[in-house]
Amino acid sequence: MNYAKRLMWPLIILLALIVVNIVATGVDFIVPSVNEDGRLGGAFVNILRRSAPLLLIALGMTLVIATKGIDLSVGAVYAIGAAIACQTIIDAPDQTAAGLVFSAVAIALVVTAVIGAWNGVMVAYFGIQPIVATLILMIAGRGIAQLVTGGQIPKVQDSSPFTELGRGAFLAVPIPIWIAALVLTALALLTRRTALGMLLESVGGNPEASRLAGIRSKGITVLVYLVCALCAGLAGLIGAANLGSADANNGGLWIELDAILAVVIGGTALLGGRFFLLGTAIGVVIIGTLEDTIINVGLSSQWQFTAKAIVVFVVALLQSPEFRAWILKPIKRRPAAPAPAPAEEVQAK
Amino acid sequence: MPATAPPGAALVQMTGIVKDFTGVRALDGVDFTLRPGEIHAVMGENGAGKSTLIKVLTGVHGHDAGEILLDGEPVRFHSPKAAQAAGISTVYQEVNLTDNLSVAENLFAGREPRLGPFINFRAMRRKAKALLDDIGIDLNVAAPLSSYSIAMQQLVAIARAVDIESKVLILDEPTSSLDRDEVEVLLGVMRRLAADGTAMVFISHFLDQVYEISDRMTVLRNGTLVGEWATADLPQSELIGHMLGREAATLEQIERAASAHRVEDEEPLVEARGLGRKGSIAPYDLTVRRGEVVGLAGLLGSGRTETVRLIAGADRADSGALQFEGRRVGGHNSRTAAARGIAFCPENRKTEGLVGDLTVAENMILAMQASRGWARSIPVARRDKLVAEFIEKLGIRPADPDMPVKNLSGGNQQKVLLARWMLIEPKLLILDEPTRGIDVGAKADIQRLVAELSADGLSVLFVSAELDEVTRLSDRIAVLRDRELIAVLESEADMTTERIVDTIVAGGRES
Predict the structure, then answer these.
(1) Which of A169, B210, B413, B440 fits A39 for a cystine, CB–CB 3.0-4.6 Å?
(2) What sequence ranges are listed for the domain ABC transporter (chain B) (predicted)?
């Protein structure tokens, strides 16, 4: 099936990276260990835990990209979500109160959802190009986060239950992994069990045809930007909970680019249309694993950006039909098989 | 039956051409002969192998068996560029020029007149002007190409090919976006080139044009050669028979099937009063009764599409009122229109109709799903049943619901679009050029469908550039000219091709 084919190359890359790490550091890389406190640990579990915020953002980004859009403001929204939650908590007299943490999280999520709706309205109703509309908040968002924190970096006490969001575990599995898995499942169900996924792909694939078919594309567009910002806010909460603080300037810095990267690695085209949430998830894990791989094979951490670029390059090449045809040509010639036909030719018969 | 090859040295001689695409034999031992100065039509339904034959000749595809002789020398082109260097130029259906460059720059791209290392723009404009004058079109050569209509752009593409001094000029559906006058200009250019000795391969769905211009015809069917005839020796009905592989006159059977039922007494479904949109269509009155087929006739750009788009809710009217089922329609848009039971198959299937990446099944259920909203997904079992039913009913080929719709041929794509709207069981079906660029078989299917649907009580607004088709299917015909509805022809005697043309020419004033 088409879906499986799309996931094949990202999966191969991920497996290759895992094999490299196992060769370099032994099977301990992939096999989870059990810490003294009964929690799962080990290199790969840590990669998944660290990747959770990026995964959340990349999932939201996948939906936005499916509509032919892009959301550059997710990094700033991450910072806003983190700032609001942390500031709300440190402003309260008792930082350990569960109710306080709950309401801090709720306020942060509501605000980020409003921001997402704002992005969506600008794109859908005012017809501003997505890259421009979200660029506004990409720049302004960090300013808003600074206003929230008063230019300081709010530090939450380690005893606050808020930190559990980033550091805690449930049934031995780290909470961030739970959240990421739940959001992935929820979005997959939301898009594939309802007709939302198909309508998204329709709007992204051909906006005019979708309008003429009677699809409420504006409402759908706003919904998608809202979900994306909500994911970014949630990612900010996890990041802040892990650190115990919110840095308005550097929290989630450049994460939008990694998210776009993960989406592309996962097989969703920036042109909109077909999207692959599971592919995006694999793309995120590839990016996370890559960072460890560089250390494990003995390269200095300065290699990180270059290595990332190389992976992007390879994935992009593998996904290009032209490149595949070119590289496979000498192999296919031998058994006297006819050259692969352009699809429209075959179907026309 | 096929005539024996006439005397005269062949310019291009293709013999026993075989072309396989993974598992499918697209051409099976096809012969094709082109002589200097002749206009040779290659005829066949979509998928007959016309395009593949042309692509083999122009070096887009390699062939698996057979031989090509150019001027008696065996040749094998590995790229379109190589073919062009040997004097074989092609003008495609879609204009492939650069929109934002000027007309002159497009004409001379890659072979600009030079002044030392620089482009001599003045000379280029002068030569461009001369070239266009020569073929009888008057454009501002310094203006960007995008400022002209697609039709004009097509003529520029042809002018460019003409100027490259081709021995062989291939015209693949060059007239599909041209109006009558522009077609005349093009045919005139073709005649002049033929007189100069250029051989031309002409591919077109417009039989009238083929008969008007071509000297000989090669007919293909399912990748095999049916035969070669002198155009004068092959009546239209026989040609259609050869192309379809069934007896001719299939098209004739639909003749006035729609008139079998009387619609004069039916109540009006749609009443447009003074409906209009500035710069698009002048205010018009139009009534469509239940079960009636109203045809819209007029030249390209006469406002046919604009007229139906207002009723479809695709564009917003800025004057007048629209009544549907006796009630005034307010806040009309595509979504509310669909909810009322107004279905609209737009003129351009690819850009306005289908979502290419989605599958046949998804494209079919799109309007139905849109009306239910995203939260209420159509159950899989019901969806599969509906899709299978309509694939069967409309004869969509290949009958694969999971194939991306962009891989289907034009006729099958049109059927998918029709199925999309039939699924919501509309009361009014608006078809804008539903048979343009599709093969004869699919055309007959769609015409038959329109006749059947209207017999079942569905009202149809039918736009077509082909007057035959309009007169055959319609109960009444609205005639448009210069973005104005000038007449509605009602009586049987009035609804003839000649009468429509007369009305357009007279501008409606005398009628």
Answers:
(1) A169
(2) 12-247, 261-507
